[in-house]
Amino acid sequence: MRKALIWLILTVLSGGGVVVYALHQQYEEQSAEFRILYRDITVKLSQNDVILALLSNSSDPAVVQQKFPYILRWQTQPHEPPRPDINPARAGTYWINSPQGSLLIDLPTLLADFVRTQKFRHFSLSWKDTPLITQGAEGKGDWWRWEKDIASPSQPLNLLVTNNPDWRSLPWLVLLLVGVFWAVVIYFYNQYQMTKRQRNIANLRAHFSELARLNAMGEIAAGMVHELNQPLTAILSYSQTAQRLIKQQQAEKAQPLLDASVMQTKRISALLLAFREKLHSDEQALQPVNLRQVWERVTMLLGNEIERGKVSVINQVPESLPSLIASPLGIEQIFHNLLNNAIQAQQKTEKAWVTIHASQTADSIILTVTDGGQGLSEQALEQVFMPFFTTRKDGLGLGMALTETLVQRLNGSIQAQNSATGGACFTLVFPLTQQEA
Length: 437
Ligand SMILES: Nc1ncnc2c1ncn2[C@@H]1O[C@H](COP(=O)(O)OP(=O)(O)OP(=O)(O)O)[C@@H](O)[C@H]1O
Ligand SMILES: [Mg+2]
What we know:
By secondary structure, this protein is an alpha+beta fold. It folds into three domains: 2-169, no CATH class; 198-282, Helix Hairpins; 284-437, Histidine kinase-like ATPase, C-terminal domain (Heat Shock Protein 90, 2-Layer Sandwich), CATH 3.30.565.10. It contains eleven helices and 14 strands. The strands form four sheets. It has a five-stranded mixed sheet. It has a four-stranded antiparallel sheet with strand order 5-4-7-6, with helices on one face. Strands 1-3-2 form a three-stranded antiparallel sheet. Helix 5 runs antiparallel to helix 6, helix 7 packs across helix 9 (328-345) and helix 9 runs antiparallel to helix 11. Residues 337, 340-341, 395, 399 line the site of magnesium ion.
């Protein structure tokens, strides 16, 4: 619609220009015709003065009449008293007078040729508003009008012609071509715009996928930093204790610490492998996961922290709970983050505890992880899953954000609230649809 309007405006504007130019041309041509007509009439009328000067009493009226049929009468004595120049009694006739005599001129006969050949719509010669000859329409409302007094002292007649533009001879073909021209220009401009827009969209898409890739890389890097931090700290602590024991000649006591170190190292290796796979694709290897066992393993991995915080960890996941089809490492990370947070939240609590509880409904498994800490503040309740939200001095604020992503990848959901006892309570729901029992 907008394009049609633009086309119309452009066509009307440039078509208008063509029409104005063509009309101007017509006007100029007719002005030239008027000048020629004026000149010819002036020449013709000035002949009368010459004839009057040459006429003598001896001229033979019949010969004069034959040569100049428009001279109706003449007399070689001037009128006394002098006659008016024009005799309005009979339209188109007038006397011209001089000291030599007078001539009665019949204007229609004198100008018969011009009158016959002129092409104006209205033509008139008049003397002091008295028309001597008129031809054609009245011409009052006509577009163009040319008027001039004949430069003859004896016959100062007024020549007036009018005309209208000849619409049929306007350059209609050119106007049509103008319309077609603008239609073609608008079509190609449109095509150009469309290609440009498509190119922009393609560029944006490329830019966006690059950004998305960078974003994913950033997410992976942040995840790596977060997840590797705890096992590395644990390995450091186990190794330092083992070193001390060996120095104290108690090498046999170092054995379980080295085993724990190996376990943490294997976890690091598994995490790195998972991250590497994630870099290649988002597909994760799903398999039946025993939630109770994974929780036990996480308890072992965080053994150091649990011991240091004197936290009692209670596993209320029933043995009979069906396995969840998931990535074992993913579930391990989820539990690891939840348990780690619960331990960290209770560093100043005397009787620290964490309970995991699991139940099954017709189509889902519901897990709750509750602790005996202070619970989540109002702000934490709102923002706990936002990346980089943290209230801990050395926290990154990524644990719960990563946990939510991992839960959502398994089509599950996670919610944070405070339990009746005041501690934090995280509820996780995993659908059992298409899951194996
Ligand atoms: N069990 C909990 N009890 C009380 N507050 C908690 C608990 N779990 C999480 N929070 C609050 O939520 C915030 C965000 O937790 P999140 O695990 O995402 O980050 P973080 O533990 O602070 O840092 P990190 O990235 O190292 O895990 C915590 O700083 C804390 O304020
Ligand atoms: Mg955390």
